[in-house]
Amino acid sequence: MQKSAAEETAVYRATTHSKTQFLFDNERFLGTIFLAPAVIYIIALVGIPFIMAITFSVTDVTVGDTSLDFVGLQNFRRIIQTPQFQRALKDTFLFTIVAQIFVAILANILAVILAQEFRGKWIARMLIMLPWATPISLGTIGWLWIFDSKFSPIDWILQYFGLLGTPDAIFGASKHLNFLGREELAMASVILVHIWRMLPLAAVILLAGLTSIDSDLIDQAQVDGASFWRIHFQIRLPLIFPIMSIALLFGLIFTFSDMVVAFVLTRGGPVYYTQVLPLWAWFKGIDGGSLSEGAAIALFLFPLLLVVAILMLRVARRSEVR
Amino acid sequence: MRYRRLLFLAVLLMITAVIAAACSSQPVEVTRVITETVEVPAEPVEVTRIVEVEAEAQPKFPEGTEVKILQWSHFVPQYDVWFDPFAEEWGRANGVNVTVDHVNIADLAPSLSAAIDAGEGPTLVELPLAAANFVEGVHDLSDVVMRAQELYGPMAETCVANSYLPAIDKWYGYCHGWVPDPGDYDIRLWTEAGFPEGPDTWDDLLEGGAFIKENFGVPMGLGLSPEIDSNMAMRAIIWSFGGSIQDENECVTINSPEVVSAVEYLVELYNRTMTEEVFSWNAASNNQGLIAGELSYILNSISAYRSLQKIDPEAADNIGFVDALKGPNGEQHASAHLWYIYVIPNYVEGPELEAAKEFLLHLTANYNQAVFNSELYNFPAFESTVPQLEGWLANDPFGSRPPDKLQILLTAKDWVTYLGWPGPSNPAVAEVYATNIIPTMMGKAALGELTPEEAVAEAEAQINEIFAKWREKGLVGCNE
């Protein structure tokens, strides 16, 4: 019996449809499609620049001459000897570690507060997220004004309360604290801005962790007479530890590889007391014209970032298993 | 019928004339000198303009020729207001599509670096200093420089040093102007200190600055931080004390008794006249301090003063200018504040390259407008292009009180130097500048972290390394 034209069309449509359906039912195909944008993005913006950085670091490429003449490890040998590099390496670790310790403590406090019910909670949450939502360069320019050597509002407030600018004032007789002109204050200022910037992200991640804890566990502990601190340190913290590790590791990577804060606030000064590796790489490579040395300095970040990345993945996997 | 034939002949003649005009291989260059009257605060001033008249001229360049100019937002906004239409007007007259992009001054080197690497981007990039870094990635502009010198006489030495690299005999840039960096002082305070005309020597600066800080609590402001003004100020001290980073043959000479003396002087100057704020300064800080009346002396261009004239004319009247301070042996040197160095990357070719060169000559021909519209901030690379400069400085058209306040800048060409002085501003000099080795050396000594001798020795080690690296590439002289 011969099929009518309408039936044939229907069969054709059904076959085609099922073929398409089959394709979208194929996990392998779907996985490839969904992953492709991320993979392309990573190759284009991370993979290729990374390979270029390695290539540049073993050549004598400059901003004017992009031909690649192999020089081996000469660039690494040259930069390691300079006092600026040594100081930058030390400062990069110091700023990152100190900032992350503060972020861990403050994010815990903030997350516990935000987990409570109180009036205006959504406004508080929004305000806390603002530093993270603001472009880092703009935020840091705001801080630059706050720390200005002549027009700092902190100076004005301290002067107003008689804490600065008089012979017997606690903070000295000078009218200005010169936040960015003194070694300790400049370093503290850079660390403070890093904390301000990273705190919202860490707090929100921890808040997500806290809200995911089964409330029965907390209720049970309260019924058993456990105090707030005991509940926090022995129940909440162990349960959110995996997610807290991820928050901190994100913070470590962002802070370690950041040059904006130091660039805008101090340009590495006073002298080079706030020099960090990414900034020194910029000065040498772009401003100074030695692209190859800049790349070599930047690559010093790689081993640490690699360790941090491995740790992140392991922690993420552990939390997934749980 | 007869009427029709006549009409036909007339149309034929018109078409022939139009075709003949269109096919003319010789471009008709039509220029016209216009004298304009410009309204300024003091009194109307005549500024000569050489314009190429679009309607009468034939396009010199093929259709579609583009010139993309990348330069910084001028510190005197009026300059950009004048420059952009000026460039576009030249483009229209010559059949070139000219676009001008302004960016932050600090973004120019990274932009050029990226463009050279990518092999495409702007046609002309204007750099403020350290252009020698790009020497291998940009065109040799010796033909433009030679042509300009034929037309307008010799280029200012400070400009030559920032656009010519003797090691490879290449004019990598075209420097059309520079900016003097005089001393700016608070007249009232310095009169109290016994220097109504301002300090004349570095010793005067120490004596007067210390008196003012002690008696009025107002410090003096020479930057000691990683930024442009600090770099220039510290070099001025070194040069005036008889020292230098390199000699005229590009050999490193930083570790000398003269440089150690300069560092010792700076340590005393810092301790007696300044505060820690100088370690935190950016390029705008000393301007802000002077405007706020919180600094007795700074080393800067006249831009801060021009701003103050608009904000508070009375306060501006209290600002005076002095030329470069003299050192112990009477030597008087200070770097220019910055230069205007156009470079053309190697990827620019054909009519675009020719058009860019032509534009540079056109700009030079009209440099009196550039100087005027920068409110006397720009100084010409070719003195003959701005014959009015002496008159303007003697009687400031922008309302200085007294009108001859800026006359001191006429001496600038006698004491102005450049980053590599007495040698050229080669790539090694540019890297020493970019990595802030000199303010760091001075700063470490001022803070007592190192003795002057140790600070100079540490700087020397770094500078030697940098010079050796660029020497290996054949871009720095003094091959021993």
Report on the structure:
Chain A is mainly alpha-helical. Chain A has 14 helices and no strands. Chain A has one domain (83-286, 300-321): MetI-like fold. Chain A has helices spanning 5-25, 27-57, 74-80, 83-115, 121-133, 136-146, 153-160, 183-211, 215-223, 228-256, 260-265, 277-287, 291-299, 301-321. In chain A, helix 3 crosses helix 13 (291-299). Chain B is α+β, with helices and mostly antiparallel strands. Chain B has 2 domains: 31-180 and 337-409, Periplasmic binding protein-like II (D-Maltodextrin-Binding Protein, domain 2, 3-Layer(aba) Sandwich), CATH 3.40.190; 183-335 and 419-472, 3-Layer(aba) Sandwich (D-Maltodextrin-Binding Protein, domain 2). Chain B has 19 helices and 15 strands. Chain B has helices spanning 2-23, 77-94, 108-118, 142-152, 157-160, 187-192, 202-216, 228-240, 257-273, 285-291, 303-311, 313-317, 350-365, 367-373, 389-394, 412-415, 427-434, 437-446, 452-472; strands at residues 31-38, 45-52, 66-72, 97-103, 124-127, 164-165, 170-171, 174-179, 183-186, 297-299, 319-322, 334-335, 338-343, 379-380, 416-417. A 6-stranded mixed sheet of chain B has the order 4-3-5-13-8-14. In chain B, strand 3, helix 2 and strand 4 form a beta-alpha-beta unit. The longest helix of chain B is centred in the first third of the chain and has 22 residues, at 2-23. Chain B is globular and about 70 Å long. The termini of chain B are far apart. Residues 16-33 of chain B have low confidence and may be disordered.
